[in-house]
Each structure stands twice: as structure tokens, then as C-alpha cells.
Amino acid sequence: MASRDLQMLEGTVANVDRAIESLGLRDDIRDVIVEPWREITASLTIRMDDGTARVFKGFRSQHNAARGPFKGGTRFHPAADLAHTRALGMLMTFKTALVDVPFGGAKGGIQVDPHELSERELIALTRRYTRSIHHMIGVSRDIPAPDLGTSAQTMAWIMDEYSAINGYTPGIVTGKPVELGGSEGRSESPGRGAAIAGRLAAIDLDIGGSSPRVVIQGYGQVGSSAARKFVEDGATVLAVSSHLGGIYNSNGLDIAEIDRIVSEGGTLLDYPNADQVSNAELLLLDADMLAPSAIEDVITTENADQIKAKLIVEGANQPTSIEADRILKDRGVTIIPDILANAGGVVVSYFEWAQNVQRFKWSLDRVNSELESIIEAGYRATFSTAKDAGVTMREAAYNLAIDRLTRAIELRGFLK
Ligand code: GLU
Question: Catalytic: which of 57, 71, 95, 107?
């Protein structure tokens, strides 16, 4: 197991331990909360375009379903492994509990670089993965969604394969294409949620007020949709980045223009009115708010003491290491934790699932306004808990999530 993955798991478990202590919960609850209920590692054999057979490793970690069916994304990434999947599955349990949607937590993945596969190979791999997990997922059991390296298209293939075995089942995945029963607003939802929480905090803490200056690492699904929502709500986005590097203008970027360039096949670096910065430099730019929205573990002991933003909004899952979290706390930097900041994705997944179950379609306006209410409620509860208890937003979020989860575990009789 790579030490980085262990650290992610340990970081989440450390947050759980602290919450258990601060809530005064009985000791035997710890293992019930930490241990995943069920996991699978599968060998996925497909024929490559060159005629050779190749075996990929696939995973699904079903962490906890005390509050509702398991729910969580599917990651196609070269570094995906069981420990990593498990850490992210646990995070989903706390995310759904914090924003109070009726789901548990899970995560899945395949150890693969999807960009190295042809479309035919990717379809074959996705179908093989679906066949390997179809007995453990279900509309009332476990509902996969997209994550890094997967998309609405991947969900369509999973739905198709699952439906071939079980009959037409759109509610088996969320984050599907709208044409196949996906929800309006799902693709923009993780970034919108991050921007909603960020805006509320900027006003409450008076960090940039109603027009904060924001730096966003990443311009994928989360980063780009956060940028659009930030601008819509009056913020100035100073910098964004991709794996190629970042672009920065202290007077702000024209996000609509960037979207036009990217939609025409260009890259961020083709945007003319900005300086180029590396991803490492971008994190240290002078701004009110920093939204790491790409990958995990980017804010570490290496850079935590040099970050200038006073507010960090974790658009990505686990972008801040445990040690960096402590340094930032000591420096008085407020962090809106991942389980709140990027919960917008799973919130609209819940709307999508509810629409599929009811065979009823919501408008984009309804999706966006209900998303706003749920993220605002989660933010307000976290903010006031943090204030009342004199703890960080992350500590408050874990307290709220674990309290809610424990209540469900007790009510279901696990501790009797
Ligand atoms: N992969 C996303 C996350 O980490 C979405 C999960 C979902 O919608 O089920 O929150």
C-alpha cells in the first residue's frame, strides 16, 4: 500500500477519532464507523486493440449504509487501489451525513489511465467492471456516480451493462447523460456547491466580502463550474489551472472567454490576457480565497505556511494533508472542508436518483435552487457548530456527520 494512500486513510480516521472524543461517544462505536461493510477487488480482463489480453484491477468499497443505500463515485486512475478507494468511500459516508441526504458512502475505481485506452477498450473495461460488481450494487443498495477519470458517458455504459442483466434501470447510476435520465444541473453541481459555500464564508468572515478574489486549482468539472458560479455571484477569479499549468491575472480572468477557447479545442494556456504560473505557484498567489479543485494532497507541510489566502474551499477530496491542516489552523486560515465544499455533486446525484425512482423530471431552476438550500443549510449548521464549540469548520463538519451517522447506527440496533 502506498504511504500516501495510508496517510489519506489515517487522516480521515484521525478526524473520526477526534469527533468521537468531542461528542463523548462510546468507544465501541469507532470500529463500527471506520470499518467498511463490504469490499471487492476484481481482476478485469479485456482484449486490447492489438489483440493481447490485459488484466486490470477494479475495486468497490462499500463503507456504510446505515443512513441509506451506499453512494459514491467511480474513479479511473493509475493510482487507484483498495486503500485509496476505502478512504474515499469513508469520506462519502460523512459527506452524505453532513448534508443530510438519505445515502451511505462508497467508492469504486479501476487502476487504469483512461487516456491510454481506445474508446472500444474503455467500453469493454467498463462493462467487465460492471459485471464484476453488479451483484453488490442496486437502486436501493449502492448507486455509483462519476469521479476522476470517468464521466456521464462512463455512467451510460455502466447503466447499459447493468440493464442488460437486470432490465432497464436508469437509477443504478447518477451523473448519467440527461438524454438517459440524468438530471439537469448534475455536471455543474460540485463546483456550484463549492462556490455557494465559499461565497457564504467570504461574507460571514469578511474575507473579500461579496466580491472575493478567488484562485482555483483545476479547471475540470469541479474547478470550471466553480469558476462560473463564483463569477455569476460577483467574485473575481484571478487564476485557474490544468495539468498543463495555470494562468493568472491580478485583475481577473474572463471565464466565459476561457470556456469559449476550451470548447473550440484550445487549452487554458491559449488564453491571451494572463501570465503563466505553475500549479505550485498558483497555490501561493495573493488572493482572498483558494479553491483546490483538482487532486488530493496538494496543500502539505511544503507550502502550508506560505499560502496567502485566508479562506480555503476544498473543491477536491482531501487536498490538505493532516499536518498542513494543523499549520493552517494555527495561522488562522479557515478551511471549508471537502465533505461540505464538494458535496454539491452527491446532492444533485440524490435529486437525479429521486427523479429516476419517481419517473419525474425536474427543471434546472428547481435543481439549482434546491442545491443552494441544501448547501446553505449544511454550511450554516457547520459554521454555527464551529463557532459555538470553538473548533474548525472541518472539526464541526465531522462532529455533525458522525453524530447523525451514530444516531442511525443506534436506531438500527447495531449497538444493542
Ligand atoms: N464523486 C463525487 C464525490 O466524490 C460524487 C459522488 C456521487 O454523486 O455519488 O462526491
Answer: 107
Residue 284 CA, ligand 1 centroid: distance in Å: 28
Is the pTM here over 0.85, yes or no? yes
Q: What is the pLDDT of residue 55?
A: 98
State how far the Cα of 173 lies from the Cα of 170, in Å rounded to an integer.
7
- Does the beta carbon of 142 lie inside 6 Å of ligand 1? no
With a 6 A CB cut-off, is 98 part of the ligand 1 pocket? no
What pLDDT is stored for residue 24 in this prediction? 94
Mean pLDDT of 373-385: 98
CB 302 within 8 A of CB 327: no
Minimum-distance ligand 1 atom for the alpha carbon of 74: 1
**Domains in the chain: ranges and CATH:** 3-169 (3.40.50.10860), 189-332 (3.40.50.720)
Q: How far is it between the farthest Cα atoms of the chain?
A: 64
Query: What is the model's pLDDT at position 1?
Result: 47
Contact 93, 405 (CB under 8 A): yes
Closest CA to 275 of 298, 303, 252: 252
- E strands, 151-296, are 213-217, 236-242, 245-248, 275-277, 289-292
Query: Chain-wide mean pLDDT for the chain?
Result: 96
The preferred substitution site among 67, 147, 318 for testing ligand 1, maximizing ligand atoms within 8 Å of CB, is 147
174 lines ligand 1 (CB under 6 A): yes
